[in-house]
Amino acid sequence: MKGLREIAPYIPGLQPQEKRMIKINTNENAFSPSPRVAAALAAFDAGELRKYSSLDNGDLRAILAKNNGILAEQIIVGNGSDDVLALAFLSFFNSSDKVIFPDLTYGFYRVWCDLFRIPFEEIALTENFELRTADYLRENGGIVIANPNAPTGIYKSLAEIEEIVKQNQHVVVIIDEAYIAFGGETALPLLEKYDNIFITRTFSKDAALAGLRVGYGIGSPKLIGIINAVKNSYNPYSVDMIAEKLAVVACEDVAYYAKTNGEIAEIRDWFSAELLALGFEVLPSLTNFVLAKPVGVSAAELYAHLQAKKIYVRYFGDKVRIADYLRISIGKQAEMVEVLMAIQEIL
């Protein structure tokens, strides 16, 4: 048949429905959302659902602006950061020059380029899985950098990010900060100097609201105007009424999330040290996961062993460069102790 699109889609992690399991394969937050979120959900007036949700998400943008020290006019809200990123690709990458991003990063970047027919080139990370600044000081149609990166967990310093932004002011540089709450310095200060930077965030990781599907982007009023025009051309009501209400409440409980995300970072560092003591190769992570290469057993064997015990981690067997590694999300302390015990059984 004519006109049918063929594309290789993004493949998410497994979503098992076991009653008793340790699910650490999709980088979900180990802790429940703020108790205030549950209270707000219980108090929500279902009668309000007869109305359309907000067009401008003013309440959510207002508190995000307050929390981040920026203007509400610098924010766009979407149905998860995937929605915001897809909008950004559509809005900002429309030249014949290639958009560039790392060869090992969030898998959706390649998919969106294929879907929207955007020319692109994947730039190889170094042997140590680091992003080399010099590789991004070249002619291009736009740049996308996840910082900290996934699936490596490695963070690139703000000074190096600024150098890339500064040397590429003729294009938009997207900085995907899905994991910035777990370590590293945000690129927000660069907004005062450059109007070509667009930062994306999600409520899925640090706010423990992956099931809510809310994300946002931050940029200059010019970029926000462009991306809003694209959004309003096909899906102006992208964030539902319940999602916006609960996201606002989550933003109000900064102290709760500072505590829980700080605890995740502590468990991550402890777990990394334990794996290193076993002889594993563990990449330095500032996220809520670690990428680790087992010793004495292959990644595929360890993956199967853990899954047999209903411990779900992520194995990228189709990606040659990290086929010997497992990505392990950070659960609660007791869960990670159990994971370590299971690992030791097979070594």
Description:
The protein is α/β, with parallel strands linked by helices and 347 residues long. The protein folds into two domains: 22-32 and 255-346, Aspartate Aminotransferase, domain 1 (Alpha-Beta Complex), CATH 3.90.1150; 35-252, Aspartate Aminotransferase, domain 2. Helices cover 35% and strands 14% of the residues. The protein contains ten helices and 13 strands. The strands form three sheets. Strands 2-8-7-6-5-3-4 form a seven-stranded mixed β-sheet, with helices on both faces. Strands 9-10-13-12 form a four-stranded antiparallel β-sheet, covered by helices on one side. Helix 3 crosses helix 4 (108-116). The radius of gyration is 20 Å and the shape is globular. The N and C termini lie far apart (53 Å). The model has no long low-confidence stretch (mean pLDDT 96).
List the helices and strands and how they pair.
Layout: E1 22-23, H1 35-43, H2 58-68, E2 75-78, H3 81-92, E3 99-102, H4 108-116, E4 120-123, E5 142-146, H5 158-166, E6 173-176, E7 197-202, E8 215-218, H6 221-231, H7 241-252, H8 254-277, E9 281-282, E10 289-293, H9 299-308, E11 311-312, E12 314-315, E13 326-329, H10 333-346
Parallel strand pairs: 1-11, 3-4, 3-5, 5-6, 6-7
Antiparallel strand pairs: 2-8, 7-8, 9-10, 10-13, 12-13
Protein name: Histidinol-phosphate aminotransferase
Keywords: Amino-acid biosynthesis, Aminotransferase, Histidine biosynthesis, Pyridoxal phosphate, Transferase
Cofactor: pyridoxal 5'-phosphate
